[in-house]
Design brief:
single chain, 318 residues, alpha/beta, TIM Barrel, 8-stranded parallel beta barrel, two-stranded antiparallel sheet
Amino acid sequence: MKVIDHIKRANGKTLFTFELLPPLKGETIESIYETADPLMDYSPAFIDVTYHREEIVYKQRTDGLLERRTVRKRPGTVGISAAIKFKYKIDVVPHIICGGFTREETENALIDLYFLGIDNLLLIRGDNPAGEKVFRPEPDGHKHAIDLVKQVVQLNNGKYLEEELLNPIPTHFCIGVAGYPEKHVEAPNLQLDLQNLKDKVDAGADYIVTQMFFDNAKYFAFVDACRQIGINVPIIPGLKPISLKSQLASLPKTFAIDLPEELVNEVLKCRDNQQVRQVGIEWGIKQSRELVKAGVPVLHFYTMGKSDNIRKIVEAVF
């Protein structure tokens, strides 16, 4: 079932969903099941599976020089999506990114997903490779997420890259895109970022999932601003409970988000990360209850490979 159909059938009830990271290369899929299993008791409507582009690493050669290598540390998004779909009998939402793919490679990945009966996607540009400040698409690849949206819409209309195909079958993908309540880190201002989001919706996106935030006022203001410029698709809040004291510095730096003063002060009082994790759970419960009361369509949680804290939040809220 498509994400937007899940939301419609809920009749105003807030749904619970979460996101999984593929395991590192060399690990088994059991780590995925260990993260997902504790959350299945709460009947998630769907599960997202992230995609991670290649990384650049430098290894020292015997002659002392550095050799540049390209590696993919977290492969397996398509395979994991299929495994989750058939193990749990649940809808999955694999992420599709611009970075590292040509248009043809993207089309082939989409065809594989369609053959597997997967009809939901989250389309994002993806991050720059580590150490690179400027995003560079592959030759004949996509530079922006809106280009991915347009390609999927073309497939949904039965238009493939190979124009000579006879009687091509249209796909039926439901398209999600990312939204940034505190603006994308590369956007010059929030207004232009909102316009870019509206362009993605106008191009065919069916729903929006937000980047993590810790101040619900930011989300409510973002939704209001979206509605004012004509963005009327569902806007799903994305949440991540804080769990490490070091995240006071890393989260704002990585995601260009603000942390509320009250939350920061509570974390600073903690003697160890076990206490920080408890603060994150309590803050997550508070955030979630307020969002549910406001009638958000879905609460979407970023697990980052750990789910014990999210289980406690969901247990208290749903």
